[in-house]
Amino acid sequence: MADHYNVSSFLTLQGFHLPPDGVLPAFLFAVLSYLIILFCNLALIITIVLNRSLHQPMYYLLLNLPVNDLIGCSALFPQVIKEILLDTRRMHHTACVAQAFCIHVYGLGAVFILSAMAYDRYVAICCPLKYNVIMTNAHVMKLIAAVWGLNVLAMAVLFYLLLRLPRCRSLMTHSYCDNPSLLSLVCTDTSVNNVYGLALVAVTQVISHVVILYTYLQILLTCFRSKGCDTKAKAMQTCATHLIVFLLLECLGLFTIISYRLNDISPHLRRFIGASALVFPPMLNPIIYGLKTKEIRTKLVQFFNKKISFL
């Protein structure tokens, strides 16, 4: 009962409970994973920023994906690496809220960005003659501003509803901070938070699925009607790339949400599922886009060839 009335500024996270001989492999795996994510996403950002030939609406929108991935993984990995290395599970409440906010911004941002990218491909493939008229730089900047503005606003409301409630516990139910774990520390009615959270998930999922399903269906129909083999192949490749990234994110996100609702699930499995949504998409997204997008792949090869030649 002591923890029930504990309102300490420091929270106690659920540890990974690693055996002594598993600490070093876990630490090396976490550090290596973080470095790979940083390298791949920064390489994608630098490639798009430094090459004027990639300064097009499609790549402006794509640029937001690695930025968003860096926000998510950088909110998670430093804390996890510190926890593994120092065997500490204590975290200040303010830092915990900041971590949770960034993680949720990452999750919602990924859905919004992929939806915006699907809309761009729809206009490019289904309305090619109007593409330059519709997807002007001003329109793309408004689209990007809307993606980030709505994302931050939705998360600001979510965490305002959380922080207004009195906290009377300090023992977290997760190995990192997110809204459900922080909400479990509250000892009062959380109906408003639950309704808003579920409504936010439902609305964003419905909108994103409708946008992506409609745009991809129209793209596929346009491809089948097209007589040009090159156009059809390029459009199908674009659809496949977007669908792989979107399905990966959706499956991991869905498993994470379901794991919170299942009381019988192993705590270790719940932590793994939750962390996987912040590890695999940021690691695979730049690799998928870098390998599947010819223009980016070509510029990356040229960039590294110049660096190797210089050395």
> What is the total number of structural domains?
1
The average pLDDT is: 84
Roughly how much helix do the residues carry, as a percent range?
Answer: over 70%
Most strands sheet: 2 strands, antiparallel
CATH topology: Rhopdopsin 7-helix transmembrane proteins
What is the CATH C-level name? Mainly Alpha
Series of secondary-structure elements, N-terminal to C-terminal:
EHHEHHHHHHHH
Low-confidence stretches: 1-6
Q: If classified by CATH, what would the architecture be?
A: Up-down Bundle
CATH homology superfamily name: Rhodopsin 7-helix transmembrane proteins
Distance between the termini: 64 Å
Percent of residues in beta strands? under 5%
Lateral strand order in the biggest sheet? 1-2
> Helical region count?
10
Radius of gyration: 21 Å
Number of strands: 2
Categorize the overall geometry. globular
